[in-house]
Amino acid sequence: MADLPTTTDSGAIARARAAAERRAWDEAFAAFSIADAAAPLQADDLEVWATAAYLLGHVDTAVDAQARAFQGHGDDVAAAVRCGFWIAFISLNRGEVAQAGGWLARSAHLLEQLPADCPEHGYLQCVTAFRLLTVERQFAAAQTTADQVVAIGRQGRDEDLVALGLNIAGRAAIMDGRPAEGLSRLDEAMVSVVSGALSPPVAGTVYCSLIEACEQIAELRRAREWTDALARWCGQQRGMVTFTGQCLTHRATILRRHGRWQAAAREATRACERFAGAADEAATGMALYELGEVHRVRGDLTAAEDAFREAGEWGHDPQPGLALVRLAQGRVATAAATLRRLMTERSDTVERVKLLPAHVEVLLAAGDRASAADASTELAAHAATYGTAALHAAADRARGAVLLAEGDATTASAPLRRALAAWRSLDAPYEVARTRVLISRACRALGDRDTAQVELDAARRVFRELGAASDLARLAVRDDEQGHELTPRELEVLRLVATGMTNQTIAEELYVAVKTVDRHVASILAKLGVPSRTAAAAFAYEHDLL
Asked: Last residue of some domain: 205, 225, 240?
C-alpha cells in the first residue's frame, strides 16, 4: 500500500513565524519542529528554524536545517550562499575546520553565478577573515580581509555583514597590538547592535566578541558597560541559551572583580547549567574557568582545582588559575614549571598578558627574582601599549613586588601606591587588599611600623568581609614582628630554602661559606619552632614571607 501524502501543518507554521517575530525562540523552535514532522519545511522557514535552534543551543539541528535550506533554495543562489556561510561560521566556532572548508568551497562554486559586487562575496570573505584570525593567527591579513568585508557590506547596505566585518577587524587589530584602532571598530559595530538593526545571531556574536576583547586587554569599564547592555538584549530574546549563558559568565567575572563573590558563584553556576544542554564546548569551558576563579579567591582550592580541570576538559585553558591554585597549595615548583613552559610556548600578546601577573607572583615565590623582573618589565610594556587602567595597576603591583623582593622598599612604594589608587578607581576590593599587603611590607622595611600595621589591618578587614580564606590564613599570625624574629639575612636564606636549594647552592648564590648557611638554617628552624627545611618552607609560604 502506497504511503499517504503528508500535509503541511499550516497552523504550526503560522505559530512558529509569529513566535519568531516576537523573539520567542523556544516557542518558535517547538512549533517549527511540529510543522517539519508533518511535512518538510520550505527553505525560508528552515532558515528561521535554524536561527531558533542556534539561539537555543541546538547547534546540530541548526546546521542540519541550514543544510536543508541550502538545497531547498534551488535557483535562489544568493540565499543558498548565505546558508553555506552560516554552516561554515558555526563549524569554525566548533573547531571543525575541514567541515567549514567544505561548505566554503561549495558556496564559492555557487558564487560564480553572481555579480562580483554582491554582498554574498563578503559573507564568504568574512569566514576567511575569521579563519585567519582564530585558526591561523594571521592578524594583519585577517584585518585586511575584514576591512574588505566592511566595504562590501556598506556598498550593499547589509548591516549584518558590516557588523561582522567590523567585529573581526577590531579583534584582529587588538591582537596585533593596536588597541585604539581595534576598539574603535568594535564600538562602531556596537552602534548597529544597539540600534536593533542586526539579526539576533549577529547581534549576539558581536556583543560577546566585544566583551571578550575587553576582558583580554583588561578594558574593564567597557566590559561592564557592554555586559549590562548584553543582559538587557538577552532579556528580549525569550528562551535563548547561546548568548545568555555567555552573558551570565561575563556577569560572574564582573561580580567577582567587584567583590560580590557569592553572586558571582551563582551566575557562573547558572551559566554552566545553561550550557549543559547546548553542547557549546568553548562557552562551557569559559563558565567553568570563571567558577574556578571564584572558588580560588575564596580559598576553596579543591573546588577550584576541580573546576579548572573540568574547564580544560571542555577545551578552555585552565591557566593561570590552576597554577595559582598550586601556588596556594604550596606547590611552588609545579606552578613555576607550568608558567615557564606556557610563557615559552605563547607568542600572542593577549595570551601573554593573561599569564604575566601570575607569572611574576609565582616566580617571586620560587625565588627567581631576575626572571620575575623580566616578566614585570614585559607586563609594563604591554600596559603601555594597551593603556588600560587594570593592566597599569597589575604592572605597577608586579614591579613593586619585584622591588620588594630585591630589598628596594623605597623605590617599590611609588608603583604600589599607583596600583592601589587604580584598583580603588576600578572598585576591585580584593586587588586593593592584596596591594595593601605589599605596601605594608614596604612600610615595615622602611621602619614605618605604624603605617605598616594600618595597611595590614585594612587588608585583613577586606579579606574577612570578602571571605578570602587563603589570604586570611597567610596573615593569621602576622603582627608587628611578622610572627617571627628572623634577621633580613635569615629571611633571604629562608626564601632560598623554600625554592628547594641545598645549603651548598645557597652558599654559592650568596657568596658565603657553606658553614655560614648551615648556621643560618639552624637558627631559622629554631626561631620558627619547626623541625625541618620542608616545614620552614611551608611556614614561609603560609605566613607570606616569600
From this structure: 240
Of 26, 30, 46, 34, whose CA–CA distance to 10 is shortest?
34
Where in the sequence is the domain holding 225, given as residue range(s)? 11-240
User: Do residue 22 and residue 107 come from a single domain?
Assistant: yes
Q: How many domains does the chain have?
A: 3
What sign does the CA torsion over 187, 191, 194, 200 have? negative
Looking at the structure, tell me whether residues 32 and 137 fall in a common domain. Answer: yes
Taking each helix axis from N to C end, the angle separating 25-38 and 10-21, rounded to the nearest 10 degrees, works out to 160
Residue 238 has phi, psi (to 5 degrees) of -65, 130
**pLDDT beneath 50: ranges in the chain:** 1-7, 477, 479-481
Instruction: Tell me the whole-structure pTM to 2 decimals.
Output: 0.78
Angle at 218 between CA 274 and CA 469, to 5 degrees: 70
Asked whether residue 69 is assigned to any structural domain, the reply reads yes
Distance (Å, whole) CA 79 – CA 519 = 82
Question: Which residue, among 107, 136, 139, has the nearest Cα to 123 in the 3D structure?
Answer: 107
Q: Taken in order 299, 303, 307, 313, is the CA torsion positive or negative?
A: positive
Using a 10 angstrom Cβ sphere, with 0-12 exposed, 13-18 middle and 19 or more buried, the burial of residue 515 is exposed
**C-alpha dist (Å) from residue 393 to 373, 378, 388, 409:** 16, 14, 9, 18
Picking from 469, 520, 462, the residue whose alpha carbon sits closest to that of residue 491 is 520
* Helix, strand or coil, per DSSP, at residue 24: strand
E strands, 324-422, where? Answer: none
In terms of phi and psi (left: phi > 0; alpha: psi -120 to 50; beta: otherwise), the region of 280 is beta
Residues 210 and 259 grouped into a single domain: no
